[in-house]
Every structure is written in structure tokens, then in C-alpha cells.
């Protein structure tokens, strides 16, 4: 039995469409793979130069890899600095701020997305304004406020500042995710007798994992990698986070560049590890935020 002419035409059309999509995918890979490799050059350079021994500063492969790799710089950094103390300080700053931003931001996002509150648009506009404030523009005011309330040279002061700076982004991203959940879900839970807190904690919060992952990575990067705010608000060496350690290797002639890059690698590792574990949620969270 022969195939009807219409079916044969449809099959040829689908075959041509599949071939066209395959060609587009190949062209896309041909463009993105070189861009990805180019983007990785600075990362390879940082890791490579962290392995450059101070007694043999010769490099190869266009100056981004050491001629004689060695882990001596990492040993030097750990001998000259209380790295684990600085690492603990960074953790005590970043982890509480991430927790505060995620939970407070999610509750505020739920209120703005589903609850009836007065002047909701005004609150949302204030949050958007909070996103445009640069750190360099508010650092003096933050310094004065921390001094006034007695939180200068105190890790709690940094936790509160980073939490305040991260909340606008968290509320906007998580609110967008909550708005994507059908409103019928909320109404059905209300009919079943669930309180707003139960609906938030049992229904909305678990469904917002991709958006929450975006907030976690963003807040961790901001609070972990920041240099300016700890520089002006922490003077006690025992309270300094890991990002201030590279200052020990700065100088006019930079006699220990390998040690400097070794510290930069140590600073970057925790954020990279968290990103690896949360990357499967990251794309969905960003896609939901764009919608």
C-alpha cells in the first residue's frame, strides 16, 4: 500500500526542517565553543599563575601558564596568613546574609505577589530603586551608620548591610516566580482552609527552587567576593574576611604574584562549588525571571 502524497510531502517537510535545525545547532556550537574557550582564558591564567614559583617566574603558552608548575605558593599563603580564620569570617558574613535574604525576600515576594496589601506598587518601586544603588555611592553612608549604631568592626554589621543590599533583587526574582504559579492554586488552598503562612511554606516556597537558587548564587557572590565594604568597616585583623588577604601581597613591584593568584583561587573556590551544585536550577530561575 503506497503512502498518500500528502503524507510523503509532510515527511519531506519534517526532514528538511530537522536538517535545518541541525545546521543551526552546528553553527551555534561553532560560535559558542570558541567564545567559551575565550571566556575561560582568564580563569586558566589565574590558576596557572597561582602555580608559578617565585624562584622561577618564567611562563609559557602566551604567558598564561608557568614553565615549572608548583603548589609552593599555596603553602606560602597558608604559612603567612591564618587562612582558615579568614575563611571562617567570610562564611560568618556570607552564610547568614544568604539565609536572611532568601527567607525574608521570599516572604516579601509572596506578600507582593498574592496578598492584598496597601500601596503595593509603592513598595515595589522602592525595591527597584534599591537595585540601582552602587556600592561605591553608599559606602560612606554605610560606614557612618555602622559607627553610629556600634557595629563598626563587627561581622554582624556586614551581615545586615549585605542582607539589605540583596533583598531588592531577591524579592523581584522570587516574586516573578510566584506570579508564574496559577492563582487558582492559591484560591484552592484558601478554600481548603490553609493559612497564608501554610500556603507560602508548603506550596509556593518549594515551587520557587529555581528562583531561590538564582538568589543564593547572587547573594553569595556579592557577600563573599566584596572587597570595598569590609575594607572600610573592618580594621581588626582577626575579623577580616578572605577577600582582604590579597592586600598582603600588593605592592609597587608585586614580588609575589604567584601568592596573590593563589589567594584569588582560594577566594573563588567556594562560589564555584556552590554554582556547580545549583546550576541545574539556575537557567530555569533566570528564564522565569525574564518572563
TrEMBL record:
It comes from the Bacteria. GO terms for biological process: transmembrane transport. It is found in: Cell membrane. The chain crosses the membrane at residues 27-52, 83-110, 122-143, 155-178, 199-221, 259-278. Belongs to the binding-protein-dependent transport system permease family. It is a multi-pass membrane protein. This is Carbohydrate ABC transporter permease. One of its GO terms (cellular component) is plasma membrane. Residues 87-278 form the ABC transmembrane type-1 domain. The keyword Cell membrane applies. Keywords: Cell membrane, Membrane, Transmembrane, Transmembrane helix, Transport. Its main location: membrane. The keyword Membrane applies.
Amino acid at each position: 500500500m503506497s503512502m498518500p502524497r500528502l503524507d510523503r510531502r509532510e515527511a519531506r517537510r519534517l526532514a528538511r526542517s530537522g536538517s535545518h535545525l541541525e545546521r543551526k545547532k552546528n553553527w551555534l556550537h561553532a560560535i559558542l565553543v570558541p567564545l567559551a574557550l575565550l571566556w575561560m582564558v582568564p580563569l586558566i591564567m589565574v590558576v596557572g599563575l597561582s602555580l608559578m614559583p617565585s624562584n622561577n617566574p618564567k611562563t609559557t603558552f602566551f604567558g598564561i601558564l608557568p614553565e615549572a608548575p608548583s603548589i609552593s605558593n599555596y603553602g606560602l599563603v597558608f604559612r603567612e596568613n591564618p587562612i582558615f580564620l579568614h575563611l571562617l569570617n567570610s562564611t560568618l558574613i556570607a552564610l547568614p546574609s544568604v539565609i536572611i535574604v532568601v527567607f525574608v525576600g521570599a516572604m516579601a515576594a509572596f506578600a507582593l505577589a498574592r496578598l492584598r496589601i496597601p500601596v503595593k506598587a509603592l513598595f515595589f518601586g522602592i525595591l527597584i530603586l534599591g537595585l540601582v544603588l552602587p556600592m561605591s555611592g553608599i559606602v560612606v553612608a554605610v560606614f557612618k551608620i555602622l559607627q553610629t549604631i556600634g557595629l563598626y568592626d563587627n561581622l554582624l554589621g556586614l551581615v545586615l548591610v549585605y542582607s539589605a543590599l540583596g533583598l531588592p533583587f531577591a524579592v523581584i526574582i522570587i516574586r516573578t516566580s510566584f506570579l508564574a504559579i496559577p492563582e487558582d492554586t492559591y484560591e484552592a488552598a484558601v478554600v481548603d482552609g490553609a493559612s497564608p503562612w501554610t500556603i507560602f511554606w508548603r506550596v509556593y516556597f518549594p515551587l520557587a527552587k529555581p528562583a531561590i537558587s538564582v538568589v543564593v548564587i547572587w547573594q553569595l557572590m556579592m557577600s563573599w567576593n566584596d572587597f570595598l565594604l569590609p575594607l572600610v568597616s573592618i580594621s581588626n585583623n582577626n575579623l577580616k574576611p578572605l577577600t582582604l588577604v590579597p592586600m598582603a601581597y600588593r605592592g609597587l613591584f608585586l614580588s609575589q604574584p604567584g601568592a596573590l593568584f593563589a589567594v584569588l583561587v582560594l577566594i573563588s573556590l567556594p562560589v564555584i562549588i556552590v554554582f556547580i551544585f545549583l546550576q541545574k536550577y539556575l537557567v530555569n530561575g533566570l528564564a522565569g525571571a525574564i518572563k
